[in-house]
């Protein structure tokens, strides 16, 4: 971040009962076999994709341990920090924002526990944008399908990208197949996600992300599907973007 | 006393071929990785000293490809003897003629020998020199005294008092792994009451690259070709008989001659002989948070199929690939969900191999007529079915299954 003036209001940390509650939620967020198991399973494929796209765009060696050294990365809707921590480990200066005060406390607690320095703030993209900060990479992973006004949210995200920087979004397509797999399958049949996590009419088609970004002067670099391989029990990149997909675009320098 | 721990990404305990090849693979795959290997002895990098150690191992084709991808095979090749041919017999000791039930042209489909006999010291020396060249940190002589893991990392205390902190501790400290017990991982094991006698023979006539395995009632008796007119001997006997044999020069040579036969001309024992108790030890789990077992620490198997070392290389190839991918993605290499990918990949394979080896040994260390009839029928059948034979060779060469990249000769 080019501006660290906006320190989010720290949640009261004096109440031990609250800290206790946050620790319990943090343990849930970070248990690979627990409630957030689907997200843990999903993490490797999106991390692999992010690393590759960011390294390719910023001219880094993908094989090195700290391939993102010195790059500023903003994760919008960071939750408990499942993406922020790996990116910080790769050397990026990471800021994670989330409107949920609980999520931010949980993420701070966990990062401190594993010794990672991550700037977590309980603010919205719009609020952060108002301070004028920009980053080399802006991420909004599994977020657009939960926002009220997609074009306004995309504009707020885009404003946070430094000229020459990158934006990556991932979400669920609005197709019959996505309804069958991501809502009926994941929420009702397999119970991977709580019912009501996603509602069909809030799902977003790729054009509804790419169009507004292009309108803001961004260049589209890639669109990639992510599919579940039931035999191996893991997620993999695919050309099939009917259900889960990711979009990468660059802001001109 | 609070020593400030030295921060590492990965600490490996054990400087045998498993620890060394894992360290080398990770250092080559991940520039900038902070890795330390702890061993009780400094690695033997002096070739003259190494030449005194006569022990040799069969390196399957897949493991050879891995050594090539690590850049050490060219150094090992001059002292490696390819196994070009394999003969298996089933006989009683005093059978005048040992019926040959199986002969193999011991090459895989693409003409590569299915295995090479490689002197252990040459292999370990080449790996140690390559690790040094790759900038790997070796802490020796020293040993891991104990360790404790939490969310932030594992604190590894060494016998010297040094304290290392790491994301992951890998135990490659052998079949009686002390670190495995410290981690609270239990094992399943049984012993055969047999010991394997190992030594080196020099013989008058050339072996032509042929491996010979006689399934005698007391257990397998195998001659594996080394460079020059030499062969490595692996001879299984009941433990008390094995101990008497190695204690007495005259008895040893007399019994040896009865078994070797005349195919190789005059035979002379040129190496020291030793007997190792044979058994099977498999860890119930291969991983814990921030802790992983590799090689014999995870599974010590009966050497009858010559697969112990090759399974160790499979562990290394799978673990290095899982860790390299995870670290490049920024994942915590000590996280249990990362380590479980390695366990899922290796454990089935290990249990399958241990079971097959166990059944083979029980089937062949037996003099009951019906058992002999059955196995001879089986071997004869295998000999008449070329496709099945090729599959045997393929499996013994380390192929089959979901093969890690390094065993296919690819970089990770």
From TrEMBL, chain A:
User: Which BP terms in the Gene Ontology apply to this protein?
Assistant: methylation
The record's section on InterPro entries has: SAM-dependent_MTases_sf, UbiG_MeTrfase
Please list the residues that bind S-adenosyl-L-methionine. 46, 77, 98, 141
- Reaction catalysed? a 3-(all-trans-polyprenyl)benzene-1,2-diol + S-adenosyl-L-methionine = a 2-methoxy-6-(all-trans-polyprenyl)phenol + S-adenosyl-L-homocysteine + H(+); a 3-demethylubiquinol + S-adenosyl-L-methionine = a ubiquinol + S-adenosyl-L-homocysteine + H(+)
Question: Any idea what job this protein has?
Answer: O-methyltransferase that catalyzes the 2 O-methylation steps in the ubiquinone biosynthetic pathway.
Pathway note: Cofactor biosynthesis; ubiquinone biosynthesis
Recorded GO molecular functions are: 2-polyprenyl-6-hydroxyphenol methylase activity; 3-demethylubiquinol 3-O-methyltransferase activity; polyprenyldihydroxybenzoate methyltransferase activity
Family to which the UniProt record says this protein belongs = Belongs to the methyltransferase superfamily. UbiG/COQ3 family.
In terms of Pfam families, this protein maps to: Methyltransf_23
Q: What is its EC number?
A: 2.1.1.222, 2.1.1.64
Supply the enzyme class, top level.
Answer: transferase
The UniProt record lists the keyword Transferase: yes
Q: Which Gene3D superfamilies does UniProt cross-reference here? A: Vaccinia Virus protein VP39
Q: What keywords does the record list, in alphabetical order?
A: Methyltransferase, S-adenosyl-L-methionine, Transferase, Ubiquinone, Ubiquinone biosynthesis
Do the record's keywords include Translocase? Answer: no
Query: Can you say what this protein is called?
Result: Ubiquinone biosynthesis O-methyltransferase
From TrEMBL, chain B:
- Cofactor annotation: FAD
Domain named FAD-binding: residues: 9-344
Under the GO molecular function aspect, what terms does this record hold? Answer: FAD binding; monooxygenase activity; oxidoreductase activity, acting on paired donors, with incorporation or reduction of molecular oxygen
What are the record's GO terms for cellular component?
A: ubiquinone biosynthesis complex
Give the GO terms filed under biological process for this record: ubiquinone biosynthetic process
> EC no.?
1.14.13.-
Pathway assignment reads: Cofactor biosynthesis; ubiquinone biosynthesis
Q: Which InterPro entries match?
A: FAD-bd (IPR002938), FAD/NAD-bd_sf (IPR036188), Ubi_Hdrlase_CS (IPR018168), UbiH/COQ6 (IPR010971), UbiH/COQ6_monooxygenase (IPR051205)
| Keyword annotations of the record | FAD, Flavoprotein, Monooxygenase, Oxidoreductase
Source organism's superkingdom? Bacteria
A single Pfam family it belongs to is: FAD_binding_3
The record's PROSITE patterns line, in alphabetical order, gives: UBIH
Q: Which family does it belong to?
A: Belongs to the UbiH/COQ6 family.
What is the name of the protein in this document? 2-octaprenyl-6-methoxyphenol hydroxylase
What species is this protein from? Methylobrevis pamukkalensis
């Amino acid at each position: 971040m080019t501006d660290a003036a906006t320190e989010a209001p720290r949640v009261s940390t004096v109440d031990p009962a609250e800290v206790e509650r946050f620790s319990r939620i943090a343990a849930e967020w970070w248990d690979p076999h627990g409630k957030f198991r689907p997200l843990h399973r999903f993490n490797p494929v999106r991390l692999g994709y992010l690393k590759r796209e960011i390294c390719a765009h910023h001219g880094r060696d993908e094989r090195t341990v700290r391939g993102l050294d010195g790059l500023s990365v903003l994760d919008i809707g960071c939750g408990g920090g499942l993406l922020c921590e790996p990116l910080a480990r790769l050397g990026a200066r990471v800021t994670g924002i989330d409107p949920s005060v609980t999520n931010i406390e949980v993420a701070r607690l966990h990062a401190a526990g594993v010794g990672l320095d991550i700037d977590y703030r309980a603010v919205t993209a719009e609020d952060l944008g108002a301070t004028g900060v920009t980053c080399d990479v802006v991420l909004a992973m599994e977020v657009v399908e939960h926002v009220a006004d997609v074009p306004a949210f995309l504009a707020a995200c885009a404003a946070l990208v430094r000229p020459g920087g990158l934006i990556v979004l991932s979400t669920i397509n609005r197709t019959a197949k996505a309804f069958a797999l991501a809502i009926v399958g994941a929420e009702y049949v397999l119970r991977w996600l709580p019912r009501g996590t996603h509602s069909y009419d809030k799902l977003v088609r790729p054009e509804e992300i790419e169009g507004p970004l292009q309108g803001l002067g961004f260049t589209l670099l890639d669109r990639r599907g992510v599919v579940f391989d039931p035999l191996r029990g893991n997620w993999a990149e695919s050309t099939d973007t009917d259900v889960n997909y990711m979009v990468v675009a660059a802001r001109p320098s | 006393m609070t020593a400030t721990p030295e921060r590492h990404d990965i600490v490996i305990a054990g400087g045998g071929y498993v620890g060394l090849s894992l360290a080398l693979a990770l250092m080559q795959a991940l520039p900038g990785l902070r890795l330390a290997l702890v061993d009780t002895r400094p690695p033997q990098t002096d070739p003259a000293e190494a030449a005194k150690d006569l022990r040799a191992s069969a390196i399957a084709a897949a493991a050879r490809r891995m050594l090539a991808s690590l850049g050490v095979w060219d150094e090992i090749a001059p002292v490696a003897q390819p196994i070009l041919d394999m003969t298996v017999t089933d006989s009683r000791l005093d059978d005048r003629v040992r019926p040959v039930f199986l002969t193999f042209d011991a090459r895989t489909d693409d003409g590569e020998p299915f295995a090479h006999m490689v002197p252990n010291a040459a292999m370990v020396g080449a790996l140690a020199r390559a690790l040094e060249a790759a900038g790997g940190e070796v802490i020796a002589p020293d040993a891991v005294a104990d360790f404790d893991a939490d969310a932030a990392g594992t604190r590894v205390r060494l016998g010297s008092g040094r304290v290392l902190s790491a994301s992951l501790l890998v135990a490659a400290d052998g079949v009686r792994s002390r670190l495995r017990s410290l981690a609270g991982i239990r094992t399943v094991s049984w012993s055969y009451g047999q010991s394997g006698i190992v030594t080196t023979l020099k013989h008058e006539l050339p072996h032509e690259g042929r491996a010979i395995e006689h399934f005698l009632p007391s257990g397998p008796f195998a001659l594996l070709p080394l460079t020059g007119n030499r062969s490595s001997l692996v001879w299984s006997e009941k433990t008390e008989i094995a101990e008497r044999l190695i204690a007495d020069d005259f008895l040893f040579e007399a019994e040896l001659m009865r078994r070797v036969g005349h195919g190789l001309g005059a035979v002379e024992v040129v190496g020291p002989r030793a007997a190792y108790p044979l058994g099977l030890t498999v860890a119930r789990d291969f991983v814990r948070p921030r802790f992983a077992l590799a090689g014999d620490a995870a599974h010590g198997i009966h050497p009858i199929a010559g697969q112990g070392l090759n399974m160790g290389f499979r562990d290394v190839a799978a673990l290095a690939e899982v860790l390299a991918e995870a670290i490049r993605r920024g994942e915590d290499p000590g996280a249990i969900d990362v380590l479980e990918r390695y366990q899922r990949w290796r454990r089935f394979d290990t249990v399958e191999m241990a079971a097959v080896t166990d059944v083979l040994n029980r089937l062949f260390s037996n003099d009951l007529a019906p058992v002999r009839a059955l196995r001879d029928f089986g071997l004869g059948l295998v000999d008449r079915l070329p496709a099945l034979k090729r599959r045997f060779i393929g499996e013994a060469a380390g192929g089959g299954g979901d093969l890690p990249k390094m065993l296919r000769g690819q970089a990770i």
